[in-house]
Design brief:
The complex is a heterodimer. In chain A, 54% of the residues lie in helices and 18% in strands. Chain A is built from four helices and two strands, in the order αααββα. Chain A has a two-stranded antiparallel ribbon. The mean pLDDT of chain A is 78. Chain B is of the alpha/beta class. Chain B starts with a strand and ends with a helix. In chain B, helix 1 packs across helix 12. Classes of the chains: A alpha+beta, B alpha/beta. At the A-B interface, helix 2 of A face helix 7 and helix 10 of B.
Chain lengths: 87, 276
C-alpha cells in the first residue's frame, strides 16, 4: 500500500457530511415558509389569463420572496407578441 | 397540570422507543408520577422494551373508543412504582387516532400524572402528528448521521407549524436535542459528525448525548430499560439528560474519548472491547 492511498483512506468524511447537510437544510428551511396555496394560485391565474390570450403553462411564474419580515409575491407573465397576433 | 413530552425524530431506528422507555423510567425513578404512551398504532413495541408485552389487555385505541376505561388499559410498570404504560393498538390503522380522542385521554391522564411521555412513530403521518400535537416539550432523537439530522430538521419545521401551540399562536414547544448512538472515537477521527456539528446545524439546545453501547441491546433483549442497569454508560447518560431536563446543571459525559494508558494499549483489548 502506497503512502498516497494511506492518506486517501484517512479522508475526513464528517466535514463533507456537515457541508452537504448545511446546504440541503438551508434550502429546505427556505422552502418551509412558502404557503401551500402557491401552486393552486398559479393554476387559477393561468386559467384566467388563458381566457383572453393563448398562453402556456411556463409563461406564468409565481414566486414568493421573503426579506426580513416582509414577503413579496411576484407574478411574472410573459405575454405573446401582440403586434404579431394582430397581423 | 401535567407536562407533555413527545419523543420524536422523523427517521426510524434512531432510538425513540429506547429513549422514551429510558426517559420515562428515569423520571419515575425520581418519584415523579409518569405515564408513557405508545403512539405507534399497528407497530407497537414500547411494551416489549418496557418488558410488559404479556400484560397488555386493552390499549390506547380501546380507551379512545370507550371500549375500556383508562384504568383497565394502563399497565403498572414492574420496576418503578410511579410509572405506567399505555400500549398502542396492534390491530387498528393509524387513522384510529383523532385529535378529539387523543385530547380526551390526555386530559384524563393529566389529572393523575405529572409527566406524560409520548413515544412517536417514525415518519410524518397521522400517528406522529398526534404524538406531537399537544406537546409542551419535544425531545428530538438524532443519530450523528446525515439522514437522521435532515429528518430531525424537518420534524422541527413540523413542530413549529402543525402543533397545537403553533396553531393557537401560543409559546412554542420547547425543543431539546438528544444525540444517540454517539461514538466519540469515530467523531474525533472525523469519521462521524461530532456533537458540535449536529448542534451547529440543528441549532436547538442540547439535552444529552447517549453513547453507542452494547448495554442498550442487552436492555431491550431483557425488557428492562437501560437506566435500570447500574453499569451502563448509556443508562448514566439518560439519567443525566433527565436531570438536565428538570433543571439540574450536569456536565456532559461520554462525549470525548478516554486516553488509553500505556498498559491497556499493550494489553490490547479492554474489558469493554471484549464485551461488545
Amino acid at each position: 500500500m502506497s503512502i498516497f492511498s494511506y492518506l486517501k483512506q484517512r479522508e475526513h468524511t464528517s466535514s463533507i457530511a456537515k457541508e452537504r447537510l448545511q446546504i440541503i437544510i438551508s434550502h429546505e428551511r427556505s422552502q418551509r415558509h412558502t404557503p401551500d396555496y402557491l401552486p393552486q394560485l398559479q393554476e387559477e391565474i393561468l386559467n384566467v389569463i388563458s381566457k383572453y390570450v393563448s398562453i402556456n403553462r411556463n409563461q406564468v411564474v409565481v414566486s414568493l420572496d421573503r426579506t426580513g419580515d416582509c414577503s413579496v409575491l411576484e407574478l411574472n407573465v410573459t405575454m405573446p407578441d401582440l403586434s404579431a397576433e394582430r397581423n | 397540570m401535567s407536562q407533555i413530552i413527545v419523543i420524536t425524530s422523523g427517521k426510524g431506528g434512531v432510538g425513540k422507543t429506547t429513549s422514551a422507555a429510558a426517559i420515562s423510567s428515569s423520571l419515575a425513578l425520581r418519584g415523579l408520577k409518569t405515564v408513557v404512551i405508545d403512539f405507534d398504532i399497528g407497530l407497537r413495541n414500547l411494551d416489549l422494551i418496557m418488558g410488559c408485552e404479556r400484560r397488555v389487555v386493552y390499549d390506547f385505541v380501546n380507551v379512545i373508543n370507550g371500549e375500556a376505561s383508562l384504568n383497565q388499559a394502563l399497565i403498572k410498570d414492574k420496576n418503578v412504582p410511579t410509572l405506567y404504560i399505555l400500549p398502542a393498538s396492534q390491530t387498528r390503522d393509524k387513522e384510529a387516532l383523532t385529535i378529539e380522542g387523543v385530547e380526551k385521554v390526555l386530559n384524563e391522564l393529566s389529572q393523575r400524572f405529572e409527566f406524560i411521555v409520548c413515544d412517536s412513530p417514525a415518519g410524518i403521518e397521522n400517528g406522529a402528528l398526534m404524538a406531537m400535537y399537544f406537546a409542551d416539550h419535544a425531545i428530538i432523537v438524532t443519530n450523528p448521521e446525515i439522514s437522521s439530522v435532515r429528518d430531525s430538521d424537518r420534524i422541527l419545521g413540523i413542530l413549529a407549524s402543525k402543533s397545537k401551540r403553533a396553531i393557537e399562536n401560543r409559546a412554542p414547544i420547547q425543543e431539546h436535542l438528544l444525540i444517540t448512538r454517539y461514538n466519540p472515537e469515530r467523531a474525533e477521527k472525523s469519521d462521524m459528525l461530532s456533537v458540535t456539528d449536529v448542534t451547529d446545524i440543528l441549532a436547538i439546545p442540547l439535552l444529552g448525548v447517549i453513547p453507542e453501547s452494547h448495554t442498550v441491546l442487552k436492555a431491550s433483549n431483557t425488557g428492562i430499560p437501560v437506566v435500570l442497569d447500574e453499569q451502563s454508560d448509556a443508562g448514566f447518560a439518560y439519567r443525566d439528560a433527565v436531570a438536565r431536563f428538570l433543571g439540574d446543571d450536569v456536565p456532559m459525559r461520554f462525549v470525548t474519548t478516554q486516553r488509553k494508558g500505556i498498559l491497556s494499549r499493550l494489553w490490547g483489548r479492554t474489558k469493554e472491547d471484549s464485551l461488545s
